[in-house]
Structures are given as structure tokens and as C-alpha cells.
Design a protein that fits this description.
By secondary structure, this protein is α+β, with helices and mostly antiparallel strands. Among the domains are: about 90 residues, Orthogonal Bundle (Arc Repressor Mutant, subunit A); about 80 residues, no CATH class. About 25% of the residues lie in helices and about 25% in strands. It contains seven helices and 13 strands. The strands form four sheets. A four-stranded antiparallel beta sheet has the order 3-4-5-6, with helices on one face. A four-stranded antiparallel beta sheet has the order 10-11-12-13, with helices on one face. Strands 7-8-9 form a three-stranded antiparallel beta sheet, covered by helices on one side. It holds the Pfam family DUF7351. This is Helix-turn-helix domain-containing protein. InterPro entries: ArsR-like_HTH, DUF7347, DUF7351, WH-like_DNA-bd_sf, WH_DNA-bd_sf.
Amino acid sequence: MDSSIPSETAESTQSTGDEAFQLLSDETRLAVLQVLWESHDPANETPMRFAELRQRIGVEDPGRLNYHLNKLTGYFVRRTEDGYELRDSGKRIVRMLLSGTAIDDPEIEPVAVDISCWYCGGKPEWSYRDGWRYLECTDCDARCVDTFSPGVISKNEFPPSGLRNRTPNEINEADRIWGTHRRASVIDGVCPECASDMPVTAVDICDDHHPDWNEYQFCEGCRSLFWMLVSHVCEGCKYRWRMPTLFYPSRQPAVTAFYYEHGIEFDLATYEQRALLLDFEEELLSEDPLRIGISIPLKDEALRVTYDERMEVVDVNRRGRIH
């Protein structure tokens, strides 16, 4: 089949998406979502009667409100015998707006946080701007990719709602937990944005990888500190995530058990253990079929996890470490 011709499913998805965007372009429909959300009690979900909804919104013409409700029903609103309530899709729309993603643009100047730089051990500062959280080391100019400014050791999307009523250290911890779960979801092939399938779409391996590990500066060829990078793209919402292959062993129980046997409660989610990634050893075992080995050395042993082109584990091997 010609891949340039949209499939029936793709056309249907596009059509549904167009209709959903059009629904949200009307102020009355947005008001319906807002009022139903404000009356929503998760512990006691009670639909709202038509008359009360009309009064709360301030629409005098019942026919006009009924017209807009009919448009929303099936997408974001559910009609029951007792009245109207939000569908889960409607709740997600309101939550997105409440998260501040679409309405706020806060900025927080750099402030010290209680963690160490995983490259040099120095002290990073936390800041927030344009919807992104930044960690910048004050002691080194580490630059793992060319899209990061010198000294930026980590950069992550984080909704403004996560800033409310938290100190910088509390925000940083919340961001760590939030980001860790999202990364785990991507590794497991489920989009953290819409829950659609999010398969591996590319494994990029630099042919002549020469980063400056002494200064933690990216390779001029691939513009990354890391030799192998994996891309996932969601089949539903087109959300893209790219990360080093070195993150993938963190999802393997054998790796957690290996560390535990050596007296380490392994949790790559913590910033303090992020430096463990730098000890992992990558091998390109074969190109066709693609096989990537990632070895975790500890004392006199090493655990090697082998992945295929979809970054699925095909082998786990434990052996004495080769010196």
C-alpha cells in the first residue's frame, strides 16, 4: 500500500481531532466544561440538572444551551438520566488548563538545591522558564547535547501547576518523580501524554563517537555526549521522546537485583544515582539484526543486558568482570 495515502483510521482520527478543536472554540461550550468541573466532587459524583447548568452559565435561551450540549455530548460531556457530567476526556481538558500549561508563564530565577551534579559532583541551581525546569551546575560547563547551554545538566518540561505552594527543593523532587514515571512509560511503549502506543522509531548510533569525557562535552559528530540515542514517537498524538540507551536497564528487575546483591538500593530515579549511568558500558554487538549490549560493572562482576532494534531485552548475562 502507498504509505503516502492516509489510511482509513488516520482519516478518521484527523476528522475526530478537527471536530474536537472546533468544539473548544466556542465560549459557551468552554463555560459548560468549567461549570461541570467546578461542581465535580470525586468522592460524590452527581450529574448537574439542565436548569441548574443554564442558571450557572447564565444562558437565557434553553434552546441555545441544548444545542451546545448536544455538540459536547459524545466528546467531553455525558448525558445521564440525572443530568450532565464530564467524561474523562472533558476532565483532561480542564486539568490541562488548570495545570497552567495554556494560561500561565511563570519564571523563577536560579536557586541552589540540595543535590550534586552527576558529572562533576558540584552544586547545581534550579530555575524555571518557558514551561521548562533547568538544572545548571555552578562548578562545570558540562554539555551533554548541543541544545543545552553550557552547564545545563538537565532540562525537562514541567507544568506550572507543580510550582504551587512548594519550595525549590520540593519542586525539584516533584519534578524528579514526575519525570521518572513519564520516562518509564515511554520505555514501556506507552505515551505519557495520551496513553497511545509509543514504539521505538529510531536508534541512532554515532559512527565516529568522540566526546570529551574529561570536560563532559558532546561529540562534534552527533552533537551528543552519548553514543546511542533512542527515539520514541506516539502513534496517537505525535509526542516525541529521545534518550540515551543507558536509561533502559533501569527498567530491568535483574539490574535492580544485581545492585541489591552488592549492597546498593538501586533507584535511577534519584539524582544522586544518576552518575551510575556513566559507569555503564555500551557495545554494538551486531548491526543486522541490531543487538546492543549494556554492561553494568560492579566490583568483580558485570551484568550485561542485550537489546534488539525495538529496545526489547533478548538476553541477560552475568559474568565475572573482564579486566
